[in-house]
Each structure stands twice: as C-alpha cells, then as structure tokens.
User: What shape does this take?
Amino acid sequence: MKKINDLTQGPIAAKLARLTIPMVFGMFSMVIFNLVDTFFVARLGTNELAAMGFTFPVVMFFIGITLGLGVATASVISQAIGRGDTHQVKQFTTHSLIISVCTVSLFAVLGLLSMNKVFGLLGANQEITALVTDYMRVWYVGVVFVVVPMVGNNAIRACGDTLYPSLIMIISTLINIILDPLLIFGLAGFPRFELAGAALATVIARAFAFLLSLLILHFREKLIDFSLPKLKEVIDSGKKILYLGLPA
Assistant: This one.
C-alpha cells in the first residue's frame, strides 16, 4: 500500500480546501449527468420523460444503499489507517467491494422480477410501464457498474485523496454526454435505442468509472487483494461495514 496522505499535520483550512474543492466539481458533474439524461429523454416525448420520472424512486433506493456502504467503507478504512494496520486497510477495501456487488446484485435480481408490479404500484399505466421496463431492464443488468465506483471512490477518499474520485466522476459524465444522443436517437450510425439508449449510455459511462476506480485502487493505492478471501473474514468485515452502513 502506498504512503497515505497525512491529514494530521499542517493548517486545517488548507487541508479542508484541498479535499473539498475537487469534490465540489465532482458532485457538480453528477448533477450535469442527470440533467443531460433528462434533457435528451425529454426530446423523445412526454411519455418517455414521465417514464424516466418513475425510475427515480428505484434508482434513489439503490443510491441510498450505495451511499450507506460507501460511508461505512470510508469509516472502517480510515480507522484502520489510523491504527496503522495496512493489512486490514486492504482487507476492508476488498471486502467492501465484494459485499457491495453481492448486495446490489441481489436487489437487482429482485427488481428485474418485480418491475411491472413495482411501477404499477407507483401509479404508472400500461404504456408508461412498458417504457419504464425498457429503461430499467438495461439499468438493472448494469447496476454493479453504478455501485462499485461509488464505494471504490469512498475507499480512495479515506486515504486522503479526493482528486482522483472527482476526476472519475467528471470523466463518467463526459462519456455520458457523448453517448446519450448517439444511443437515444441513433446518430452517427449507432442504433436508435430511445429510452433504453439513455440507460445504456449510463451503464457504459459508469462501466468506465468502474474500471478507472479499480485501476486506481489496485495500481495507485494498492488496496485490492485478488487472493481468494476467507468467508469468515468477509462476514466479519461485513458486520463492521453494515453496523455503520445501515443507519447511513
């Protein structure tokens, strides 16, 4: 594991500014990400825009899970760094990614099996539900790419680095901006997927973020252990992560 940024030395204001400013731009890029999706989907028609609106409660449910896991991951990794336990830092990072993938995969399967029921209960009529399922079918399949970068970025931030997570978020947004019109409207020789194209653009953009996050965690931070984990260790890590993550 590379040398962790020491946040206990130096002026507090300077440390806060160095950590905060990159995150402001990163979070702003995520707002643009969603605005761009909404803008292009609105060009398809009011039904498509309404269908997009029905996806938000489900998407926010998954983001809530991800934020909880991400906060917990950052907390346990920070504590391990404070203890100087480099083995546990790497272990918590690796296990948090495994737990995140397993958790969202379970909910994604349940979501795929209950799409018509869920969106019907939310008030979508038959026509809107058909559009929603076009979008969510793609989104559910790629939901791991949405979750892992968010948890991985929290692991990187726990090491005192907010620049790289922000750059990952910005790059993901730029890819989405490029792909949205191509895949939604079938421009430049691409197939016209309409609403499903918005979901596909999101998944591809997040997949790039997924790859970048793993590359940074492995090669720069050296925080991922690719050896086969012991089930008991994963369960022990899971208890600590969920103890902090569930309330969050």
Q: What stands out?
A: The mean pLDDT is 90.
